[in-house]
Design brief:
Layout: E1 2-5, E2 26-34, E3 39-47, E4 52-54, H1 57-61, E5 74-81, H2 85-88, E6 97-106, E7 123-129, H3 137-153
Antiparallel strand pairs: 1-4, 1-6, 2-3, 2-5, 6-7
């Protein structure tokens, strides 16, 4: 999964000089759910203005699940946040993050006779942009509470890890 900060949010920090215009860092609040709609991991990763954050689903987002079970299907929600849940423990939605996911998909090739070829089937790589979704106050509070519970009660489990920006996994 790759996330960029489009750099369009102005800073809330004081401007040092009139010639310097600072753009705002944002946080990608990430919530990983399994196919039973149970939160498995959550975290908040900082993305600087015009920065790129690369997160591996296997290494960063499902390697420390709350239940100890690694999901093979589910939902990843990313909220563009102006503060970061690990800084403030409150979600502050702010526009500016865009995300894409890369999928490796195996194909199955068979001949007319129904037999598979002697060689391995090829793999296809697709990339999909994350879809915008509605985020109302109830969903915002629910995500905030679920993540707080995971961090507080998970004894270290349920918290995903963040790569440094521009890190390729």
């Amino acid at each position: 999964m790759r996330i960029i900060n489009d750099g369009g949010q102005p800073t809330t920090l004081p401007v040092i000089s009139s010639d310097l215009i600072l753009n705002r860092n944002l946080w990608a609040d990430i919530f990983v759910f399994d196919d039973s709609q149970e939160l498995q991991e959550c975290c908040s990763c900082e993305v600087t203005a015009d920065g790129l954050l690369s997160e591996s689903v296997n290494q960063n987002l499902t390697a420390n699940t709350l239940t100890g079970r690694v999901p093979t299907r589910g939902v990843i929600k990313v909220i563009s946040d102006g503060i970061g849940i690990e800084v403030d423990d409150t979600l502050d939605p702010s526009p500016g993050l865009r995300a894409w996911a890369t999928h490796i998909q195996a194909t199955s090739v068979t001949f007319a006779s129904g037999k598979a070829p002697a060689e391995k089937s090829p793999f296809y790589v697709t990339e999909t942009e994350f879809a915008d979704s509605n985020l109302n106050a109830a969903e915002l509070e629910r995500l905030d509470n679920l993540c707080s519970f995971a961090i507080t009660l998970g004894s270290g489990s349920g918290v995903c890890s963040c790569n440094y920006e521009d890190y390729e996994f």
